[in-house]
Design brief:
This protein is mainly alpha-helical and 237 residues long. Helix 3 runs antiparallel to helix 4 and helix 4 packs parallel to helix 6. The protein is globular and about 60 Å long.
């Protein structure tokens, strides 16, 4: 009986991730960006624990693997895409002259490319055996945190100073980096030595001032810092 019960615990936690992601999508569609960010973070917490529980309880399953990808694409693909969509719809961002008029009404829908490429990223991860101790391309939770924290923390600045073209360039870069072949380091610590975890320690040291000076927007800056450090590490290998 115990085994029959415990084997369902990891998938239940994954479903809580999916549930959180659905709420995040609704909040994002309603332009309630702070709550959308909160539920994305809650989904990320559930996403962290479902895999850990599957290993601890020795209850991995093929269904769990597929369910995890589905939940992640909602929480970390669709939810940030809805945030960008709502932001572009609610704002009076300046468009280039050739996009002015009726066509500009359809520009916000390009935000959903984030969900599409997040799904591709997750499918690639499931079949890529190289990503056991590190990542190839930006993980979807990191991409979601970038967009959510950028829109929440930098909302006024984006409205007043940023044109739609720049947001669309960020969307294009986001889609590319998700499925790119760029190696990204993992924050998994096998021990606490400096030599074995130098990159991770440098990353964590750099995170502190970003959070102190930028607040919520600091999380978006941290993802940029993570990408830059990964690129620098790649070039020096």
């Amino acid at each position: 009986m115990a085994n029959a019960f415990t084997k369902h615990i990891p998938n239940t936690v994954t479903c809580l991730n999916l549930f959180s992601g659905c709420i995040a999508c609704v909040m994002a569609f309603e332009a309630n960006y702070s709550l959308a960010l909160l539920f994305i973070v809650i989904g990320a917490v559930f996403d962290f624990f479902d895999g850990m529980l599957a290993r601890l309880l020795k209850a991995p399953s093929p269904i769990g693997k597929e369910l995890d990808s589905l939940a992640d694409d909602i929480s970390f693909g669709a939810a940030p895409a809805f945030m960008v969509f709502s932001f572009l719809k609610e704002s009076q961002l300046c468009y280039p002259e050739f996009l002015a008029g009726t066509i500009s009404n359809y520009i916000p829908y390009l935000a959903f490319l984030i969900a599409v490429f997040s799904g591709l990223r997750l499918a690639k991860f499931n079949v890529d055996e190289r990503q056991t101790s590190s990542f190839i391309g930006l993980p979807t939770p990191a991409n979601a945190l970038f967009w959510a924290s950028l829109i929440v923390g930098g909302h006024r600045f984006l409205l007043e100073h940023v044109c739609a073209g720049f947001i669309l360039i960020l969307v294009a870069f986001s889609c590319w980096i998700l499925i790119s072949e760029v190696p990204m380091f993992s924050l998994k610590f096998k021990n606490l030595s400096w030599a074995s975890n130098k990159i991770s320690y440098i990353f964590l040291i750099g995170c502190a001032p970003l959070l102190i000076f930028l607040g919520i927007s600091g999380f978006a800056a941290i993802i940029v810092w993570y990408i830059i450090l990964s690129l620098f590490t790649r070039k020096n290998k």
